[in-house]
Amino acid sequence: MRNRLCLATPVMLLALFGGQVMAADYTVLVNKMTFGPLPSELHVGDTITWKNADIFRHSATATDKSFDVDLPAKQDVVMPLNEAGEWDFVCKFHPGMTGTLVVLP
Ligand SMILES: [Cu+2]
């Protein structure tokens, strides 16, 4: 029992604090025609759940067209982060809605 604990602890710590070891899901609230704050520590393998609380359809569309996520009214849409990079994005229906997505390796 004691040996098993000694082995398990470093693995658990790595999983908890390694950042890149465990994928995480982050929720970004889209509300009142605004994208909520994006997490600062997004990594490849994580997912974003866009939660559109508005009665309007929105989108999260990269200005370089790398991604284009449709966000129907009152729905959640999951977006996997498959690539590291930095993208400015906009709602294609409401060009005043903007944000920047930064994904670390
Ligand atoms: Cu919109």
TrEMBL record:
<keyword id="KW-0732">Signal</keyword>
<feature type="signal peptide">
    <location>
        <begin position="1"/>
        <end position="23"/>
    </location>
</feature>
<dbReference type="Pfam" id="PF13473">
    <property type="entry name" value="Cupredoxin_1"/>
</dbReference>
<dbReference type="InterPro" id="IPR028096">
    <property type="entry name" value="EfeO_Cupredoxin"/>
</dbReference>
<protein>
    <submittedName>
        <fullName>Cupredoxin domain-containing protein</fullName>
    </submittedName>
</protein>
<dbReference type="InterPro" id="IPR008972">
    <property type="entry name" value="Cupredoxin"/>
</dbReference>
<feature type="domain" description="EfeO-type cupredoxin-like">
    <location>
        <begin position="25"/>
        <end position="103"/>
    </location>
</feature>
<dbReference type="InterPro" id="IPR052721">
    <property type="entry name" value="ET_Amicyanin"/>
</dbReference>
